[in-house]
Design brief:
Length: about 290
C-alpha cells in the first residue's frame, strides 16, 4: 500500500500535464475504463461469477469514488492547491472516526495519536493560508467521499473477492466519466506523448494495480492503519514535484513531512507491541482454563 501511495504521489506531475491537453471528464473515462479492461482480462480467468454482493458493493463504492474525483476536480478551480491537498488529507482523520461509528472498531491509542500527528504534518506540509470558499467546501466533501469509500471497502472486503470488487468499481468510475464527457461535450481523443504516458501510468499501475491493492488492504487490515499509510501521498507528491517540476520546500514543509512519517511509524510500532501483549494474554487465559 505504501508503494501504491508513492505511485499516486508521483503521478500528480504527469496528470497535471495531461489534463492541460485533455478535458478532465475524458481523462477519467479513458483512465478508468482502461483500468477496468486490464482487471477484466485477469478476472476472466478466475473461477466463479461476480456475486450480487460484489456487484452491488462495487457499484456503490465506485459511485462514491467517482464523486470524490469529480468534487476534487471541480473544487480545484476555486481554491488553492495547498488548501486542496490539506483538506483532502483530512480523510486520514475522518476514516478512523467513521470506522468507529459504522464498523464499531474504535481506534487504539497509538492509532488515534498517529492520526493527530498526521493531521499536524499535513497542515505543515501543504497549508500555506486558510480561507473558506466554495472550493474549500467542495474539497471537504471530496475528503468525506474518500472516507466513505475507505470504510465501504473495509466493510465489503471480508465477504467479497478482491478482483470482482475492484473490476466493478473501476468500471463504474469509467462509465460515469464517459457519461460526464458526453453530457458536457468534452469527449476528445487522446493526443500527444504526455497524454498517452499519463493514461498508461494511471490506468495500469495507478488504477488497475493500485485499486486492487487498496481494496485488498482495506479487507485485510484496519481502516485506521491504511488511512495513515495513505497520508504519505502528499509527501511523495512533494518529492516528485521537487525533482520533476522544480518545486521548493521550506523548513516548515520538511517538518510536516517528517511528522507524517513519524505518525506512520508510531501506528506501526504500537501495532507490533500490541500483538505480543494479546498473545501473552491468550496464553494466560489458556493456563487459567487448564
Amino acid at each position: 500500500m505504501l508503494g501504491v501511495t508513492a505511485l499516486w504521489g508521483w503521478s500528480y506531475v504527469v496528470v497535471q500535464d495531461a489534463v492541460a491537453l485533455l478535458p478532465v471528464p475524458a481523462f477519467l473515462a479513458y483512465r478508468f475504463l482502461g483500468a477496468a479492461a486490464v482487471v477484466g482480462l485477469f478476472q476472466a480467468r478466475a473461477p466463479g461469477r461476480i456475486t450480487a454482493r460484489e456487484a452491488l458493493g462495487g457499484t456503490v463504492a465506485g459511485g462514491v469514488l467517482f464523486t470524490a474525483y469529480a468534487l476534487q476536480t471541480v473544487g480545484l478551480k476555486d481554491t488553492t492547491v495547498s488548501n486542496a491537498a490539506f483538506i483532502t488529507g483530512l480523510a486520514v482523520v475522518f476514516t478512523p472516526l467513521l470506522g468507529a461509528l459504522v464498523l464499531r472498531t474504535p481506534p487504539r491509542a497509538h492509532q488515534a495519536a498517529g492520526a493527530a500527528l498526521a493531521l499536524a504534518g499535513l497542515s505543515l506540509l501543504t497549508l500555506k493560508g486558510l480561507s473558506v470558499n466554495r472550493g474549500d467546501v467542495l474539497m471537504l466533501a471530496c475528503a468525506l467521499s474518500f472516507t466513505v469509500q475507505n470504510v465501504l471497502l473495509a466493510h465489503l472486503g471480508p465477504g467479497t473477492r478482491t478482483g470482482p470488487l475492484t473490476l466493478v468499481q473501476l468500471a463504474v468510475v469509467g462509465l460515469a466519466g464517459l457519461l460526464w464527457s458526453l453530457a458536457t461535450g468534452s469527449l476528445a481523443a487522446p493526443s500527444g506523448r504526455s497524454v498517452w504516458l499519463a493514461l498508461a501510468v494511471t490506468a495500469v499501475p495507478g488504477s488497475a494495480l493500485a485499486f486492487f491493492v487498496k481494496t485488498k488492504a482495506f479487507a485485510t487490515s484496519s481502516p485506521h492503519r491504511i488511512a495513515l499509510i495513505m497520508a504519505m501521498e502528499p509527501v511523495f507528491a512533494g518529492v516528485s514535484g521537487y525533482w520533476l517540476s522544480g518545486d521548493t520546500f521550506t523548513a516548515v514543509n520538511l517538518c510536516g513531512a517528517a511528522l507524517i512519517v513519524c505518525a506512520i511509524l508510531l501506528a506501526e510500532t504500537g501495532r507490533r507491541r500490541a500483538a505480543p501483549c494479546r498473545r501473552r494474554s491468550d496464553r494466560t487465559s489458556g493456563d487459567l482454563r487448564r
